[in-house]
Specification:
Layout: E1 3-7, E2 11-12, E3 18-25, E4 32-39, E5 46-52, E6 57-60, E7 68-73, E8 78-83, E9 92-100, E10 116-117, E11 121-125
Parallel strand pairs: 2-11
Antiparallel strand pairs: 1-3, 3-8, 4-5, 4-9, 5-6, 7-8, 9-10, 9-11
Length: about 130
């Protein structure tokens, strides 16, 4: 059984940074894509960024390339989302998701492409 568990969500002030983690278990394939998605109140779920383990390429959503980064700890089977200079627009429920397969230079920010999802962790950016 594949499980993804997010953690690290918190209440932060604008301009602060936050790191989210996603622990993956039950998935034995070497190559896959991991994506981070955000759902704000009253909004559709949108892709934040994704990472392709096959070629170590990252795809960024709009307006996050200079502020958000993704990293991976293979020993812990964990993926991290480092968010810098957060704004109120960054508020939402953040999900990590896994897309099974082998990809070259592309992972996709479309939620429909991901088959496994975590439960989400809440990030609130407010003064």
């Amino acid at each position: 059984q594949v499980q993804l568990v997010e953690s690290g969500g918190d209440l932060v002030q604008p301009g602060e940074s936050l790191r989210l983690s996603c622990i993956i278990s039950g998935f034995t394939k070497q190559y896959y894509a991991i994506g981070w998605f955000r759902q704000a109140p009253g909004k559709e779920r949108e892709g934040v960024l994704c990472y392709n383990t096959f070629d170590s390429k990252t795809e960024f959503g709009d307006s996050v390339k200079d502020r958000f980064t993704i990293s991976r700890d293979n020993d812990k089977n964990a993926v991290y989302l480092q968010m810098k200079n957060l704004s109120p627009e960054g508020t939402g429920l953040y999900f990590c998701a896994l897309r099974e397969g082998i990809f070259l230079g592309h992972c996709s920010l479309s939620s429909s492409m991901y088959g496994y999802w975590g439960q989400g962790t809440q990030v609130t950016v407010s003064s």
